[in-house]
Amino acid sequence: MKTRWEEKLEDFKNVLDRLDEGLKLDISNSIVVDGVIQRFEFCYELAWKTVKYFLDYQGIEEVKSPRTAFREAHTYGLIENGDDWIDMLTDRNKTSRTYDEELAKRIYNKIKSSHFKNLKNLYDVISK
């Protein structure tokens, strides 16, 4: 039987694959940008929840928010640069609260250039 964190890890892998799929599409259609941003939001949510359940499994139970999860993940060696994850949190919050086409394009470019790599690296480290 799988633990809760293993279930979350599997879900995280699935949405990460879907994000990767979206990033390979032509962005001339604005719906692709919107879809990638939505998939990024799903990935970010599952990333922090996977970290929360993993750390809980390791006996670290005080994780209650994304910020705490990624601070602990950095301490535990699951992620390299905590500031990148705070930047992702900021972008995730911006995309979920308002829609601005220029902002969407900037965040899409950050997802493609760095956020996806950070999410993928977390998956690679935590899945070992």
TrEMBL record:
<dbReference type="InterPro" id="IPR010235">
    <property type="entry name" value="HepT"/>
</dbReference>
<protein>
    <submittedName>
        <fullName>Nucleotidyltransferase substrate binding protein</fullName>
    </submittedName>
</protein>
<dbReference type="Pfam" id="PF08780">
    <property type="entry name" value="NTase_sub_bind"/>
</dbReference>
<keyword id="KW-0808">Transferase</keyword>
<dbReference type="GO" id="GO:0016740">
    <property type="term" value="F:transferase activity"/>
</dbReference>
